[in-house]
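Quick one - inputs below.
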Amino acid sequence: MGFVQGLKCRECGREYPVEPIYVCEFCFGPLEVVYDYKRISKVLNKRKIQQREKNLWRYRELLPVEGEPVAGRNAGFTPLIKAERLAEALGVKNLYIKDDTVAHPTLSFKDRVVSVALTKAREFGFDTVACASTGNLAHSVSAQGAMAGFKRFVFIPASLEPSKIIASLVYEPNVVAVDGNYDDVNRLCSEIANKYRWAFVNINIRPFYAEGSKTHGFEIVEQLGWKTPDNVVVPCASGSLLTKIWKSFKEFKEIGIIKEVRAKVFGAQATGCSPIITALKQGVDVIRPVKPNTIAKSLAIGNPADGYYALQAIRESGGYGADVSDEEIIEGMRLLARTEGIFAETAGGVTVAATKKLIMEGYIKPDETTVICVTGNGLKTQEALNGKVPSPYYIKPSLASFEEVLKEKGLL
Amino acid sequence: MAVKVKIPTPLQRLTNGKDEVEGKAGTIIELIADLDQKYPGLMERIVDEGKIRRFVNIYVNEEDIRFLQAENTIVKDGDEVSIVPAIAGGLV
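Output:
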């Protein structure tokens, strides 16, 4: 019942069957899922999508699975919020937040990709799922893997903060703390993936896993009333999410769900790790790897795997990008929280601050419809705000003491 | 003395299983063309239309040639060249 024809190298076009592989044997390019859009356009339409349950599987014909999902039955379909107070603060009229801070079950957009990866892993016959991660991905693999009944191995750098380790450990996967940094962990996992028959969601399952990100884009179009926004601002680490959001818009056009794709895609990075935005601003294709130094740890990938494709998508759409300092990131998080009541992780601060910059620089116009992609929940990275938020008012348990504060601080 | 070239596992089938071979000094593209004489097929795996393929990284003495003179980077006798497939990694 699936609509996948096979895998294809994005670089040289060589074709491969549907297998847990991710690199072209010939030219080492990444493999991409190929769909039969003609057949999909015959069976999938707006009405059919709208009749289905409000989760990411309502777009299942455009996801690389054959049978019933084994994970993510409540994942996806997060709110698209009309952000009127934030819009006013930024001096624009039509601003929306695509809010994956409330993603089910682990409060980040990784629940989308892991839902697809685990379903595919089961179809391939794997009994063990694994990942290399510093945070959100580890949480989602641990939680959803538990629910779907997989053995789980989660590889993390040993130096990770205790709160992040606990948020994986509670689901009782095998957590392997590696004496090294994230790049060392990733390299080790590639070796392990070669030797053990495990489904590493972001290595040998990557072509399928990454497709899950498209649902973030499909939902934006559906929730805007079946049209693309004028602008969409996307945080970039590897560049995969941005690339897949662009792909989602084009696929909806390809199968006739929308008539045109008008959206400009904008990238957002932290200045302390901005290899994609740097190449964009310099007008070059080659991405120079950097050593990350930013509080936005979930975006701290110095050598972005999909950076080149993200650049292509940004340029093809007529968009642009911005990078923002750690101070601007904190202010972005606080601005989003005090205007819209959304507590985003640092990556959300990056996206809000970058949007502000793009508006000020004139790349985003006040009358246009703009969607800001917020991809993870701030409760996971509270330490980033230590000493950066206001203090409580400390009082004695008496009315007099309370009123003293009211008067002293001018709170009435 | 010659240029030392490290060959990654997926290309060792073309170099009779050797993980290190020797090549001639010159530009990177000349070096690869020379190796292709001895190990036919190597060139097309690494180079497309005169350019190093996007997902192949080449390092001269541990510096990525994209930040030197790319295909025209000169290598001397005694230099060490590594050919490394860029492995798809990364998250968001």
